[in-house]
Write a sequence for this structure.
């Protein structure tokens, strides 16, 4: 066992004295673009189920929000991992191990098999989205990440232009007036809409499937925003293929869950999809070019294809195409 893992096992045994003499296998969980580190502890005794240790840093402002977000979501009845222990000084969180079967693992299966998994996932989303920002106290909002507003959407758009359009595509866009006007109109329109709680990174690798139920992870970015942003993260996820008809089924299912007008949902969904996909492409470019995580570059073609599809669905988004094709 590597020295680092041996040290973590010692600290874990100290945290849980009943596990002092129980043989254990430690497995590093390598996944995603996070600066956090995850380790699975597999105990040889049947009465001690596996657990996951999350080791985080303070490099990102949302990392310390994981524990309070867990408590908030659990109180709403959302399926999230139980917290077994929390060492705030060491920045350690010991969590229930939800297993290895994430939603993404099913991406090659038929839609008949995937449909109930996506429906289960949307049922968890609906629990989060049922909380309107207007029902939250000032103190509750202050505990979360900053709300999605016009300024936040502008930051995401600039992130896309800096890292993907200028950095990855090596294009200058300063003289392209029309797409910049379209970006301004997009962020202004989204910024005026009433907000609810959102997961913020609601994609297939952040949903774990257990016995037909969906369990959520990586929700430390919980904040007020638009439900359609989460829906776009899931249904225009560049990591998986979902057809237009399948996407329509899921939007109809979600609208029925929450008693929403489907036409209104569609309109805002495509605007949020453009916003989310620009953010994702900026992230893929930044992670691959600047942070050494080159495997993220493989997702860029799917992200671009999705963004083209979205821009063709909504006339006001069409000017954005000149930024990247």
């Amino acid at each position: 066992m590597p020295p680092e893992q041996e040290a973590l096992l010692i600290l874990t045994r100290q945290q849980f004295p009943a596990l002092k003499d129980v043989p254990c296998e430690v497995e590093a969980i390598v996944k995603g673009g996070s600066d956090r580190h995850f380790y699975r502890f597999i105990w040889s005794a049947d009465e001690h189920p596996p657990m996951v240790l999350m080791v985080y840093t303070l490099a990102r402002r949302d990392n310390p929000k994981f524990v309070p977000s867990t408590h908030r979501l659990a109180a709403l009845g959302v399926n999230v991992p139980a917290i077994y222990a929390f060492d705030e000084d060491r920045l350690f969180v010991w969590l229930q191990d939800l297993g290895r079967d994430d939603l993404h693992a099913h991406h090659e299966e038929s839609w008949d098999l995937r449909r109930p998994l996506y429906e289960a996932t949307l049922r968890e989303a609906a629990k989060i989205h049922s909380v309107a920002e207007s029902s939250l106290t000032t103190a509750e909002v202050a505990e979360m990440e900053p709300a999605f507003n016009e300024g936040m959407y502008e930051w995401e758009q600039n992130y896309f232009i800096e890292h993907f359009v200028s950095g990855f595509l090596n294009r200058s866009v300063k003289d392209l007036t029309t797409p910049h006007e379209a970006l301004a109109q997009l962020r202004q329109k989204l910024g005026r809409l009433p907000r609810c709680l959102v997961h913020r990174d609601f994609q297939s690798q952040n949903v774990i499937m257990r016995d037909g139920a969906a369990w959520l992870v990586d929700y430390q970015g919980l904040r007020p925003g638009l439900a359609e942003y989460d829906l776009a993260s899931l249904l225009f996820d560049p990591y998986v293929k979902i057809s237009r008809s399948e996407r329509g089924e899921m939007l109809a299912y979600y609208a029925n869950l929450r008693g929403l007008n489907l036409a209104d949902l569609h309109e805002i969904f495509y605007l949020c999809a453009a916003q989310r996909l620009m953010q994702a492409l900026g992230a893929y470019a930044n992670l691959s070019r600047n942070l050494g995580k080159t495997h993220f570059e493989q997702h860029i073609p799917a992200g671009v294809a999705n963004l083209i599809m979205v821009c063709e669905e909504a006339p006001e988004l069409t000017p954005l195409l000149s930024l990247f094709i």
